[in-house]
């Protein structure tokens, strides 16, 4: 079986890019390429990750400026080719700003930057991203954001619910006030995933909290199959 | 012609504005209990060159739709005035 190839986009202000690379390359041994936002070459990649951080200083709105980076046109082509895209935290914000996932992520309801571990329930286990979790898993992952409250129009929410696009929900409560406790959602086909929690920060056996490990194992197993 | 644009951006009424709620609460604590519906937005001003006022208006709307405002969560109002040299 051939190794899964990861690409991680680095925007000015990204700060979780190397955390992701540490997991995909350092721990899982998968070839991983860091891609500067001004580059356009995403050829040969299976999964492109938009990492957490503060792209362009979060100026105007989180993800608003990153959305127009040269690499984003290539990202759309990557999706059209059948490639997988994972947006974590700021990456999720960029995906919504770019219209690749519906809705928006706005200021936390309590106005605080929340940095803690939160409970999550996994709503879809038939996806590339979650298949390795035992059925009915309730997991704990870290979050670290000031703008993570998911919001969308009622008809969009209904569509997300009806099409099973909600992948992760905060459980039992959404600390940021997210609509319908949404922590992560996917495109209708499931190949584009955005989530506010950080699976890459809970995947090193030497660190406390390892509920992110099955996330990455799901991807590896799913693409190697 | 050179124009000055004033752009007001607000969260849509359906989107909770927690900062507005916090400020309203503070105003109430200061005794200004008559205050209601505090909403905090953004003000952007910029200058641009355009052949006429209509084109300037149109261009500013395009800037708003493309980047300055996110129609999913925000609304905007613009005012575009010629700058007299």
Write the layout of secondary structure elements.
The complex is a heterodimer of chains A (225) and B (85).
Chain A: E1 6-10, H1 17-27, E2 32-36, E3 47-50, H2 70-80, E4 84-88, H3 90-97, E5 104-106, E6 114-122, E7 138-145, E8 149-151, H4 154-162, E9 166-170, E10 182-186, E11 192-195, H5 213-224
Parallel strand pairs in A: 1-2, 1-3, 3-4, 4-11
Antiparallel strand pairs in A: 5-8, 6-7, 6-9, 9-10, 10-11
Chain B: E1 2-11, H1 18-29, E2 42-49, H2 53-68, E3 74-82
Antiparallel strand pairs in B: 1-2, 1-3
Describe this structure in words.
The complex is a heterodimer of chains A (225) and B (85). With 225 residues, chain A is of the alpha/beta class. Chain A has one domain (6-224): Class I glutamine amidotransferase (GATase) domain (Rossmann fold). Chain A has helices at 17-27, 70-80, 90-97, 154-162, 213-224, and strands at 6-10, 32-36, 47-50, 84-88, 104-106, 114-122, 138-145, 149-151, 166-170, 182-186, 192-195. In chain A, the strands form 2 sheets. Chain A has a 9-stranded mixed sheet with strand order 2-1-3-4-11-10-9-6-7, with helices on both faces. Chain A has a two-stranded antiparallel ribbon with strand order 5-8. Chain A is globular, with a radius of gyration of 16 Å. Chain B is α+β, with helices and mostly antiparallel strands. Chain B has one domain: Phosphoribosylformylglycinamidine synthase subunit PurS (Mth169, Chain: A, 2-Layer Sandwich), CATH 3.30.1280. Chain B starts with a strand and ends with a strand. A 3-stranded antiparallel sheet of chain B has the order 2-1-3, with helices on one face. Chain B has 2 helices and 3 strands. The longest helix of chain B is centred in the C-terminal third of the chain and has 16 residues, at 53-68. The mean pLDDT of chain B is 96. Chain B is elongated. Chain B has helices at 18-29, 53-68, and strands at residues 2-11, 42-49, 74-82. Classes of the chains: A alpha/beta (225), B alpha+beta (85). The interface between A and B is medium-sized, with 21 and 12 residues.
């Amino acid at each position: 079986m051939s190794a899964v190839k990861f690409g991680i986009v680095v925007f000015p202000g990204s700060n979780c890019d190397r955390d992701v690379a540490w997991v995909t390359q350092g721990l899982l041994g998968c070839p991983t390429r860091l891609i500067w936002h001004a580059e356009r070459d995403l050829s040969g990649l299976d999964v492109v990750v938009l990492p957490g951080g503060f792209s362009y200083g979060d100026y105007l709105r989180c993800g608003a400026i990153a959305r127009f980076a040269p690499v984003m046109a290539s990202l759309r082509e990557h999706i059209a080719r059948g490639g997988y895209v994972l947006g974590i935290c700021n990456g999720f914000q960029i995906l919504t700003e770019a219209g690749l996932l519906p809705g928006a992520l706005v200021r936390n309801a309590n106005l605080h930057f929340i940095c803690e571990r939160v409970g999550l329930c996994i709503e879809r286990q038939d996806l590339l991203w979650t298949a390795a979790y035992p059925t009915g898993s309730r997991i704990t992952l870290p979050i670290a954001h000031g703008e993570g409250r998911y919001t969308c129009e009622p008809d969009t929410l209904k569509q997300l619910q009806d099409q099973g696009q909600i992948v992760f929900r905060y459980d039992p409560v959404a600390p940021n006030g997210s609509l319908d406790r949404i922590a992560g959602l996917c495109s209708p086909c499931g190949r584009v995933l955005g989530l506010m929690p950080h699976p890459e920060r809970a995947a090193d056996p030497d660190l406390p909290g390892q509920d992110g490990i099955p996330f990455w194992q799901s991807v590896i197993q799913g693409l190697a199959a | 012609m050179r124009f000055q644009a004033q752009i007001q951006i607000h969260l849509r009424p359906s989107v909770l504005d927690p900062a507005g709620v916090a400020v309203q609460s503070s105003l109430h604590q200061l005794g200004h209990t008559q205050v209601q519906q505090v909403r905090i937005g953004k003000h952007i001003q910029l200058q641009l060159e355009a052949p006429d006022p209509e084109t300037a208006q149109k261009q500013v709307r395009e800037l708003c739709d493309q980047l300055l405002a996110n129609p999913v969560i925000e609304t905007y109002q613009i005012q575009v005035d010629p700058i007299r040299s």
